[in-house]
Amino acid sequence: MRLRDKVALVVGAGGGMGSAVPYLFAREGAHVVLGARRLEPLEELATRIRLHLTEPGGNVACVTGDATTAAGCEALVRGAIDHFGKLDILYCNVGDAAFGDRAVEEIDDEAWNYLIDVNLTSNFGPVRAAVPELRRTNGCAILVSAAAAVRRAGSPGYAAAKAGLIGLTHSLAGRLKDEGVRVNCICPGSIGPSRADDDFREPPTILNRTAHPADVAYAALYLASDEAAWVTGQAIEVDGGASL
Fold it and tell me: End-to-end CA distance of the chain, in Å?
């Protein structure tokens, strides 16, 4: 098991990538903490993960908090530590591509600020709250941006926030590398709605196909594992070559 006894906090746990990542982490031995604003969907996901684990893996717990606020981020990190005593891996999955159908002049301040908060602030806040513990464990943070083709297709606010995450990754990685904390970023291609439990299935081993949630989960698994112990400050596009 590649993450045996590590503790991973997945902020923005939910459908698609937000389910595939914690499932794969748990299957690889991590104790996984699912974090989001509402408890009920987290508990449902935790139950699904436990049911799909064919071999004993890590434990799954749930904590609530708003990743766009400092207090919410502190609650998420503190909840993870309260459950399992430490934090090794932070995976930030919060994001929204809303307002993509609006013309530029129709993007008001409320829409703009929402997109920056939910796509950019929601990644920085959890890292800021987690850094003291990640220093102690020589842990890592994984942010989720978007592939270049996805950024180009999104609204200006979405594109700006997701591009900002790549710059944020570089900045955080540079500041924290001498303290033993790695920071990397995954840039997924377009992953549409999936059927029930698709996020727990293996993707086909061919290149010419549509995206699968597990494609992103396996990239996250590598970055979270000790195999990536000398990898930091990277933005990895997982899009099947769509951005070429």
Answer: 34
Q: Is 91 a catalytic residue?
A: no
What CA–CA distance (Å, rounded) separates 7 from 2?
12
Domain ranges of the chain: 7-238
CA gap 132, 66 in Å, rounded: 19
Which of 118, 108, 120, 191 is closest to 162 using CA atoms? Answer: 120
Q: What is the pTM of this model?
A: 0.96
Of the candidates 23, 158, 218, 222, the residue annotated as catalytic is: 158
The fold of the 7-238 domain, in CATH, is Rossmann fold (3.40.50)
CA distance 37 to 11: 9
Q: How many CA atoms lie within 13 A of 129 on its CB side?
A: 29
Is the CB of residue 104 less than 8 Å from the CB of residue 110?
no
Mean pLDDT by 10 residues, the chain (244 residues): 96 88 96 97 95 87 97 98 98 94 94 96 98 98 95 94 98 98 96 68 88 93 98 97 90
